[in-house]
Write a structure and sequence with these properties.
alpha+beta, Aminopeptidase, 45% helix, elongated
């Protein structure tokens, strides 16, 4: 199955010039005009337009199937991916943060999240609903959004996203309440539950979203058996915006997931199961003091990575959508 999806992922990249909705429609209109004005055989033009339409339909259907049933682009998530991340970025990669809540700035988060099977399974909302959600979260905490861009040809392309939110005491209680009837979903958090910086009394970070774009996983993000790669460094670089051991003595990290590939990595970093969420996903939490005591070697490595990545420059503003970015039609 993986081989089939990987084969189509490569072939569809070759077909991109003829599968965009705009170009397909344009060719169809041009065909009708030529048939009427130049007397070109209508059957031939109809056949050409039909082939283009078929490719377009196959592309869209395959994307839906791949999103819901296709294998993940990275089946192997290890503890080492976060303890042995690169401490700096090479010139073809950069961290970027949206400069505002507009669609043009938040498109990497909306589109990449919308194509994620795990995200859609957890909360299957419309693309416009997802945009409204991220605009609300951005208003509460602009620093909660960070993404990784890679230079592909002459353009910068978003290939991984991270959403991390500092929670108030009330926000943490609301989403982790043991009574599922009284608990709220993470997507219902608003300004009352989200802070723009860590709570001084009970600092908590919700690691909400970390996704590598399915379309460009094959283009690479630096991951190898010896290094976790730049998409993994993105998460630690994002955490470093809010917390490093030098800035603050203790913090609590919270993750909501049912991802079977992710859970072994969380356990390797001393995260503990902490109940079920409103959407029946598992809560996993770790206090930095517990991490230091339970996994001292991992804590040391993560601390050193956080300190190094805290100095990596962040570009202000998302790159414009690449010319082959499918956007809302994906």
């Amino acid at each position: 199955m993986r081989g089939l999806f990987d084969w189509w992922r490569v072939r569809r990249c070759l077909c991109r010039p003829i599968v965009s909705a705009e170009l397909s429609a344009g060719i169809a209109i041009l065909g009708l005009v030529l048939a009427f004005v130049a007397g070109v055989a209508t059957a031939i033009l109809t056949g050409i337009v039909g082939v283009l339409a078929l490719i377009y339909v196959i592309d869209r259907v395959s994307r839906r199937l791949a999103m819901r049933y296709g294998p993940p682009p990275d089946e192997d998530i290890r503890t080492d991916d976060f303890t042995a991340v690169p401490r700096a970025l090479t010139p073809e990669y950069r961290f970027s943060a949206p400069s505002g809540p507009s669609r043009a700035q938040l498109y990497p988060y909306v589109d990449i999240s919308h194509e994620s099977p795990s995200i859609r399974k957890a909360n299957d909302i419309s693309r416009e609903g997802r945009l409204a959600l991220y605009q609300r979260w951005y208003g509460a905490c602009p620093h909660g959004f960070l993404h990784l861009e890679k230079r592909v040809g002459s353009q910068w392309r978003p290939i991984a996203i991270s959403i991390i939110l500092p929670l108030s005491v009330e926000g943490l209680k609301a989403i982790t309440c043991a009574d599922r009837e009284r608990a709220i979903r993470v997507i219902d958090l608003d300004r009352g539950g989200i802070r723009d910086r860590l709570d001084g009394r009970h600092p908590t970070l919700l690691i909400d979203t970390w996704i590598v774009d399915r379309e460009y996983a094959g283009a690479g993000h630096g991951k190898s058996r010896a290094s976790g790669g730049f998409a993994n460094a993105l998460v630690l670089g994002h955490i470093a915006l809010f917390w490093t051991p030098r800035k603050r003595s203790a913090i609590k990290f919270v993750v909501e997931t049912n991802n079977r590939r992710l859970i072994p990595m969380l356990r390797g970093l001393a995260f503990l199961p902490s109940g079920r969420s409103k959407i029946a996903a598992g809560w996993f939490t770790v206090d930095s003091k517990w991490l230091r005591a339970a996994a001292p070697a991992e804590f040391k490595q993560v601390s050193e990575a956080l300190a190094a990545l805290a100095s990596v420059a962040i570009v202000d503003g998302s790159a414009p959508q690449p010319t082959d970015w499918s956007g809302p039609t994906r």
